[in-house]
Specification:
Length: 241
C-alpha cells in the first residue's frame, strides 16, 4: 500500500473520530437546533415582541379589507392573509358571515400584545385578533382562522380567548407549519404548544446518536479500504512466448 493511499485512509478515519468526539464532548452543543416544522424557503418568524436574538426578523404584518356584506347568509367566499412568506395569519370567510346586511364593513386580522390571561401551554408565536369595524359576525356563522407556527418542536393547537380563558379549537394541521380551525366568534387567537414538547431535531441527544453513526461508518469504511489494499495480491504479468 503506497504512502499516499495510507494517508488518505487514515484521514478518513480521523475525520470520523473527530466528528464523534466533537459531539460527545459537547463542543458543538451550542449550535442552534434544526427544526423540521418549516419549509427551507420560509422566512424567519416575525414576532410582535421578539425574544432576545430575534429582533432583526422584522415586524409582523396585518391585513384588512373593505367588504360589502351580502343580504343573506352564505354569499361569496373570500380570504385574507398577511404578507409574510408563508403568511403568519389568514382568515377565510364569506360576505354573508357579517352584519349589517348589504352594507360595507372593515374586516381584518392583526397581531396584538398578549393579554394578561396565560394559556395552559407554551405560546407559539403572536396573538392575532380577528376584528370587524362597523359591523359584527352574523349569529350562527363560522369562518376559518389559520396561524403559522414558529417552527418550534411540538404540535400546537389553535386556541381562542373567550370568557376570560384560552379555549382550544378543533385544529387541523396544514403542512408544513400552518394550523387552522373553525371559529364562531371574533377576537384573539393563538397557537399553544404542550408544556412538555419533544426534543428538537438536531439537539444534543439526536446529535450524539447521529455523530456516532456517521463516525462509525467512516471508521468502518477506512478499515475496509485498508484491508483491501493490505491483502490484495499483485497480478502476475503474462509471459511472452
Amino acid at each position: 500500500m503506497s504512502s499516499l493511499r495510507r494517508q488518505g485512509v487514515w484521514a478518513l478515519a480521523a475525520s470520523g473520530l473527530v466528528l464523534t468526539l466533537g459531539w460527545t464532548s459537547g463542543a458543538w452543543r451550542d449550535a442552534p437546533a434544526v427544526y423540521d416544522g418549516l419549509p427551507f424557503n420560509a422566512e424567519p418568524y416575525r414576532y410582535l415582541n421578539p425574544p432576545s436574538g430575534l429582533e432583526g426578523n422584522g415586524a409582523p404584518s396585518s391585513v384588512h379589507m373593505a367588504l360589502r356584506t351580502a343580504t343573506h347568509a352564505g354569499g361569496t367566499a373570500f380570504a385574507l392573509s398577511t404578507n409574510e412568506s408563508p403568511p403568519q395569519s389568514s382568515l377565510i370567510a364569506s360576505d354573508g358571515d357579517f352584519l349589517p346586511a348589504g352594507q360595507t364593513v372593515m374586516v381584518g386580522i392583526r397581531p396584538v400584545p398578549a393579554p394578561p390571561v396565560t394559556p395552559a401551554g407554551r405560546p407559539d408565536g403572536n396573538v392575532y385578533e380577528v376584528y370587524v369595524e362597523g359591523g359584527s359576525l352574523r349569529p350562527g356563522s363560522t369562518y376559518t382562522v389559520a396561524l403559522r407556527g414558529t417552527g418550534a418542536p411540538g404540535i400546537p393547537q389553535l386556541e381562542h380567548l373567550a370568557a376570560g380563558r384560552w379555549q382550544p379549537l378543533p385544529t387541523t394541521h396544514v403542512p408544513p407549519a400552518v394550523y387552522s380551525a373553525p371559529a364562531g366568534a371574533l377576537g384573539d387567537f393563538l397557537l399553544v404548544l404542550p408544556l412538555h414538547g419533544p426534543t428538537p431535531v438536531g439537539g444534543p441527544n439526536a446529535g450524539v446518536v447521529a455523530a456516532l453513526v456517521v463516525g462509525g461508518l467512516l471508521l468502518a469504511t477506512g478499515a475496509f479500504l485498508w484491508a483491501i489494499r493490505r491483502f490484495r495480491r499483485p497480478v502476475e504479468p503474462l509471459g511472452v512466448s
